[in-house]
Amino acid sequence: MLGEEDKLPFTAHLDELRSRLIRSFIAVGVGFALCYGFKEELFEVLLYPLLRVMPEGGKLIFTGIPEAFFTYLKVSFLAGILLASPVLLYQFWMFVAPGLYRKERHVLGPIIAVTSLFFIGGALFGYFVVFPSGFKFLLGFGTDYIRTLPSMREYLAFSTKLLFIFGLLFELPVLLACLAWMGVLPVPLLKRNRKYAVLAAFVVAAFITPDVVSMILMAVPLMVLYEIGILGGGL
User: Fold this and answer.
1) What span, in angstroms and rounded, lies between the C-alpha atoms of 97 and 105?
2) Taken in order 205, 209, 215, 217, is the CA torsion positive or negative?
3) What are the 10-residue block averages of pLDDT along the chain, 235 residues in total?
4) What is the per-residue pLDDT for 145?
5) Contact 124/164 with Cβ under 8 angstroms?
6) Which of 50, 148, 168, 200 is the right S-S partner for 142, CB 3.0 to 4.6 Å?
7) 233: exposed, middle or buried (C-beta count within 10 Å: 0-12, 13-18, 19+)?
């Protein structure tokens, strides 16, 4: 950490922050431009779990004239942020690292890396495991007289929201480990309350999933993540 005589003035911190933000915005802009060139392919990737379970000949629609255009813009922007995420994390690290003690730097770096991996893992789990089962259940409400005609905008909003939720849920081990390290939730307390954690896992899974199969597919990983959090808190 910087000594008293080495501390930067407040204006220097603002200049540093501005520089890091500008680089981050440039990285996102470049990522957006690159992804916009593949906007249809990116949207098809996001659409794949739904297409797998849609009836034969099923298609998405757009109900407003500019809806498809703005949907592709949003997809490109989100993909651009994902593509630029290594640069964003690097800029964040370079801004905060000089103000940390060596021990804090050794802890914060791995936490950022593990947090990112768990978030991506949660989003991928939702995409590959929960989406197909959940979409199949929801589309099952269609009949000979009721046709399912999802719009591009609605699907993008619905799917990205769920992916974000799954990513956040998979941060459970990191949260529990940090709370255990700080003494807020000691490891013995976490072990004693496993039964309540199991109940909470099924309640949360039931709240965010539409059917029993999806609920089980979500609850079981949450219980596993709880155990990982206990192991991490004991390190």
Assistant:
1) 6
2) negative
3) 53 85 96 96 94 83 92 96 93 84 80 91 94 89 81 94 94 92 90 92 90 90 94 85
4) 81
5) no
6) 148
7) buried
